[in-house]
Structure formats: C-alpha cells, structure tokens
Amino acid sequence: MMASLRFASLGSGSRGNSTLVEWSSGTLLVDCGFSVKETNQRLERLGKRAEDLTAILVTHEHADHIKGVAPLSRRYNLPVYMTPGTYQSRDLGELPDLRLIEGYAAFELDQLKITPVAVPHDAREPAQFIFECAGARLGIL
What we know:
Strand order of the largest sheet: 1-2-3-4-5-6
Order of helices and strands: EEEHEHHEHEEEEE
Helix content: 10-25%
Structural class: alpha/beta
Largest sheet: 6 strands, mixed
Radius of gyration: 14 Å
Number of helices: 4
C-alpha cells in the first residue's frame, strides 16, 4: 500500500526547481523550472508521466521555478495554482485553467489539503506549501 504522501525532487538549483508530490488520488508538481522535454525526462526517471499530473503549484515567479509552468500546463491541460502577485509578475500567456490562491487561503485538491504559507523572499507574493492527507503532513519550504 502506498504511503499517504510521497515526494521526490526533480531538481533543485539555479538551473531549475521542481518537486513531485504524490498522494492516494493524485500527483502534482510544485514549481516547474525546466523545459517540457526536461521535465518529462525527469518524471520518466521516477516512473511518472506528465499526462498523469493533477496540477502544478507555483511558489513564486523566478525563472528557475516558473520557466516550464505555462508550456507544461498548455501541453497537458493542467490547472495551475499560484498567488495573484505571482501571476501578475509574469506574462505567462494563456493558461488553460488558472486558479488563483487568494489571501493564502487553504484549499483541497482530490483529498489533499494544501495550506499556502507566506514567506519573505525577493518576489511579489511568494508562497510555500504544507500538504496534509490521511494524517500525514509534508511541508515544502
């Protein structure tokens, strides 16, 4: 039986950041600082596919966190969650399903509770996230 929450880093650094979070009924990316091709290669190494993602969450607008968000969202018709400040700070073009996180309010995504947390950073409205599912908690800060 799968643990209630699992995660893996697709990469962390100035060339790109992305973390995969998986729970019993979904899989999401926190940030996507890689091209679609690179993201697919990194997912494949973990036995995952972009077609199976539930959503993308964005922490902030720096290129190493957001570069691949819009192209990946468009290619696979994925919802994107981010704060209004993050959205307004970049021209991401058309997103098929933009969901703005207003006032750092917690929300649910397929049985996963997501609590955005405001953090000091040199960005317009950055957010980090705490995930909760079936009694397990994971914070990506």
